[in-house]
């Protein structure tokens, strides 16, 4: 018998953030245009090349749009730098590296859309953090991610660049849909509570150990 107990959401990401904090982060990283956000380490399964290709397609119609990637060091991956150049987006992809938790929380809130096309995940915490911040999510339809996002984000086939592009486009073109999805995601994130998960683990131990 298998019992599935989900990760909790760090309550820090659910807290209210004042405008000054958002403004400071936007100014520090020159975030003066609408942007898509991806939070990741730089590994092949994170599917960044397809994300870059998708962003290259979107830039044809959204000239004021940026892509912000927070996480690992891009400079150690020449294939990704080459992809940026090939798609003509090297000046519109901001690579921020790893950020302090406070800045990351602000970044989630500043983003127009959070995009997470990973090929597989054990837990999928970045989409959960984005949802906690009220940011609409486009994510992969595989592994653990659908269990986290549910119907509170747009799930796509991460191997299809066109599917990633169209999901993002549907949110860019409909602010009401975008806002509604962000609000639903925030409610969903509150269901992932570490206290509940801990109590469930304790209950299972009791069930197993009771003669």
TrEMBL record:
Q: Which UniProt keywords apply?
A: Transferase
Q: Where are the transmembrane segments?
A: none
Q: Any idea where the Glycosyl transferase family domain is?
A: 30-186
Q: Name one GO biological process term.
A: lipopolysaccharide biosynthetic process
Q: Where is the signal peptide?
A: none
List the Gene Ontology MF annotations in alphabetical order.
glycosyltransferase activity
Pfam families (UniProt xref) = Glycos_transf_1 (PF00534)
Q: Please verify whether the record's keywords include Transferase.
A: yes
Query: Does the record carry Transferase as a key word?
Result: yes
UniProt cross-references to PANTHER family, sorted A to Z: GLYCOSYLTRANSFERASE WBBK-RELATED
What is the protein name given in its UniProt record? Glycosyl transferase family 1 domain-containing protein
The beginning of the lineage is: unclassified sequences, metagenomes, ecological metagenomes
């Amino acid at each position: 018998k298998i019992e599935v107990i989900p990760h909790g959401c760090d309550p820090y990401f659910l807290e209210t953030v004042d405008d000054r904090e958002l403004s400071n982060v936007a100014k520090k990283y020159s975030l003066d245009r609408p942007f898509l956000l991806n939070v990741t380490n730089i590994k092949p399964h994170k599917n960044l090349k397809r994300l870059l290709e998708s962003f290259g397609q979107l830039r044809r119609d959204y000239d004021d749009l940026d892509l912000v990637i927070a996480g690992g060091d891009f400079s150690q991956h020449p294939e990704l730098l080459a992809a940026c150049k090939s798609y003509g987006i090297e000046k519109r992809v901001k690579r921020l590296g790893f950020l302090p938790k406070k800045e990351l929380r602000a970044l989630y809130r500043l983003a127009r859309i959070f995009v997470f096309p990973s090929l597989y995940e054990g837990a999928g915490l970045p989409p959960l953090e984005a949802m906690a911040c009220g940011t609409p999510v486009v994510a992969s339809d595989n592994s653990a991610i659908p269990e986290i996002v549910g119907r509170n984000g747009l799930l796509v086939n991460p191997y299809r660049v066109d599917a990633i592009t169209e999901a993002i486009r549907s949110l860019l073109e409909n602010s009401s849909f975008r806002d509604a999805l962000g609000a639903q995601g925030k409610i969903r994130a509150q269901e992932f509570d570490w206290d509940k998960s801990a109590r469930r683990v304790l209950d299972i131990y009791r069930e197993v150990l009771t003669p």
